[in-house]
């Protein structure tokens, strides 16, 4: 069925679901914040963990839906069955999924903590907040790139635990330093689940950066939703260009 449908169908399906989820997420988030303010708390507090869990989960669903490459690959003749993830046993796959969840949560927690600290460090004027958000976005990109470079070593260590015969070696992807964040964050058709996860983590981190800005008094200036929508629009445009150009 997927082969008979044009790529543009999957694009509109992807972004139709993305817009629906974005509206649901934003509406739900504002209602939760109005009834019981979503406090970020201190660095290691349960409030901070709760904030990151709620925001990170919602945003990861959003950016996953917004990847036409995922839909196109799943609709292909072999679906995603050719990915190495599906060569593992059920228990091994569950362990890999659990490891990915822990790593993503740690990455989002670290990025959000960095953003909260930066915004509380600067004056409360709207101009300062805007500059801080742009600078924070640069720091977020650097953090994401560092995690993307180091993550293969962690996953390789897991594969060495579950598969015999793998040599002890370094698999850190230092070659990624020569690639632009744009190429890494906009995978095309046929991309692996790992590439799609890298892209989803990037856009999710970008959105949570702006969500922190909105949460830390930027919302008083009513620019949070527009920033949120701007980043989402840029992401959609870039993914369209990479997929169909």
The backbone outline, from C-alpha atoms, is globular
Rg (CA only): 19 Å
Number of strands: 0
Derived from helix and strand composition plus strand pairing, the structural class reads mainly alpha
- CA distance, first residue to last residue: 24 Å
Number of helices: 8
Mean pLDDT: 78
Helix fraction? over 70%
- Percent of residues in beta strands: under 5%
What oligomeric state do these chains adopt?
single chain
For the biggest sheet, the summary is: none
Order of helices and strands: HHHHHHHH
Describe the structure.
This protein is mainly α and 245 residues long. It is 71% helix and 0% strand. The chain is built from 8 helices and no strands. Helix 4 packs antiparallel against helix 5 (126-162). The chain is globular and about 55 Å long. The relative contact order is 0.14. The model is unreliable at 220-224 (pLDDT under 50).
């Amino acid at each position: 069925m997927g082969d008979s449908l044009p790529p543009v169908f999957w694009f509109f399906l992807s972004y139709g679901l993305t817009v629906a989820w974005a509206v649901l997420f934003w509406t739900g988030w504002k209602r939760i914040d109005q009834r019981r303010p979503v406090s970020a708390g201190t660095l290691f507090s349960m409030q901070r963990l709760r904030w990151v869990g709620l925001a990170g989960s919602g945003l990861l669903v959003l950016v996953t839906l917004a990847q036409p490459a995922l839909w196109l690959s799943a609709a292909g003749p072999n679906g995603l069955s050719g990915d190495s993830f599906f060569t593992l046993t059920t228990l091994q796959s569950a362990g890999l999924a659990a490891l990915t969840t822990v790593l993503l949560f740690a990455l989002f927690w670290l990025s959000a903590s960095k953003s909260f600290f930066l915004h509380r460090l600067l004056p409360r004027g709207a101009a300062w907040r805007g500059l801080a958000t742009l600078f924070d976005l640069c720091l977020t990109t650097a953090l994401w790139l560092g995690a993307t470079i180091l993550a293969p070593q962690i996953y390789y260590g897991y594969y060495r635990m579950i598969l015999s015969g793998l040599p002890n070696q370094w698999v850190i992807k230092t070659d990624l330093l020569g690639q632009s964040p744009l190429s890494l964050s906009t995978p095309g058709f046929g991309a692996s689940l790992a590439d799609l996860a890298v892209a989803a983590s990037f856009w999710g981190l970008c959105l949570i950066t702006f969500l922190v800005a909105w949460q830390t008094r930027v919302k008083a200036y009513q620019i949070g939703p527009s920033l949120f929508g701007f980043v989402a629009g840029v992401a959609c445009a870039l993914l369209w260009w990479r997929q169909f150009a």
